[in-house]
Design brief:
Distance between the termini: 25 Å
Radius of gyration: 16 Å
Number of helices: 2
Shape: globular
Oligomer: single chain
Number of strands: 10
Length: 164
Amino acid sequence: MIYSNLGESPPAPDAAPYAELWHNEIAANDKAYSDQGDTQYTGGHAPATEVHFVVRDTQRVAVLSLLDTSTGCTAKTDIAADNASIKFCPLKIAIYEAGAVTTAAGRMGCFLELNAPTSGDPSNSVSYATYDIGARSFKTGVIVNHEPVPGCSEIISLDKQLVP
């Protein structure tokens, strides 16, 4: 899965589609910071990190995306020895086809937040996603210290109305 910094304003060109997908949630996060008197992000965005997985075919693009903000996520667990946090964060699926976008929102998914670079094996902690074409479903999960995080592996089937 690929991480994007959506706290930049304007977003980097490769992050722009995800900033657009999460526009309302980013605005709500900015407002929450402002309402608490935090003005350091005036003229920009409060911290927001997104992670995505993209599947393309000849007619459509499917995107699975999670957004990590302090106002939109809840803590699942901190893994101090591995310097990682797992949060439940909003998850969206977007289908881009023929110039139109259809989204499915309202789910939460596990977001891996690495608090600092890990020593030793850099691949010991990862978020992953795969897509099963036949089943029309994403499989997601989080691995920390080469072990799956309980409660973070799931299969997300695409509704036939979303992907005909």
